[in-house]
Description:
Blueprint: H1 2-23, E1 38-42, E2 47-51, H2 66-80, E3 88-92, H3 98-111, E4 117-120, H4 129-136, E5 143-147, H5 159-166, E6 177-183, H6 191-200, H7 204-216, E7 220-224, H8 229-242, H9 249-263, H10 268-282
Parallel strand pairs: 1-4, 3-6, 3-7, 4-5, 5-6
Antiparallel strand pairs: 1-2
Amino acid sequence: MHNSLREELRSQIERLAAAVDRLAPREPAAPRLDDADCFVWNPQPGELDPVHRVNRVDLTLIRGVDHVRDILLDNTRRFAAGLPANNALLWGARGMGKSSLVKAVHAAVKAEGASLKLIEIHREDIDTLPSLLAILKPSGLRFILFCDDLSFDHDDTSYKSLKAALEGGVEGRPDNVLFYATSNRRHLMPRDMIDNERSTAINPSEAVEEKVSLSDRFGLWLGFHKCSQDEFLDMVAAYASYHELKIGDEALRADALEWATTRGGRSGRVAWQFIQDLAGRLGQKLRS
């Protein structure tokens, strides 16, 4: 009987230990960076999820932003070649191709033969940047970290993690990592948040500097502004030509202007939405 109880107790302990092991967080898998050119950072459990089909457009289809396009392309080429380059903040009007440009520039530089990875990190995961950088630093590859629609609201302190990861901290940003972000705000924080710091702080100038200095960590500030009618029509014409839509120039122009009027504005996003609607009405499929 004594031996039977001992065996039963041992069996229960083993089952309990196995149950505890199953509940414990699993060790993150070693990153397989050769699996893809683009990844999404998954902070739990600390892995890079490969993206084999990236949602992006050809660089030649991004119109109306020629100057900032060329600056970002040159900056990315230099970084891919191992030369000094700057973090970039693409800010300004909605729907003008900020995130599309980042993905298109990466594809263009890759097509030129560069070994360059694009990793998207979500806004809510910014405070896990140190963990991600620790994975990327020893890899020997070059990476662009991309955060779309980056901004910070009241009582949000995760911007301090971004400041330290970009250039601050003891080690600073690894040489093989560059950070690109898009935002509708030039200073990444609402104006009333900065004004509130100025009015309530013991030393207002230092408080405001703490907020604004985050943007200063980006060596490139690339502004995107609302497009003119001619620029909007140029975007539409480029899309229609690329997708070989069967419609005359005058009809395309008239339809596009009517679409923009109903939407109450003009932008690259509005142009693309019009093209999707037009292709559907024409019974044509769009090129992948």
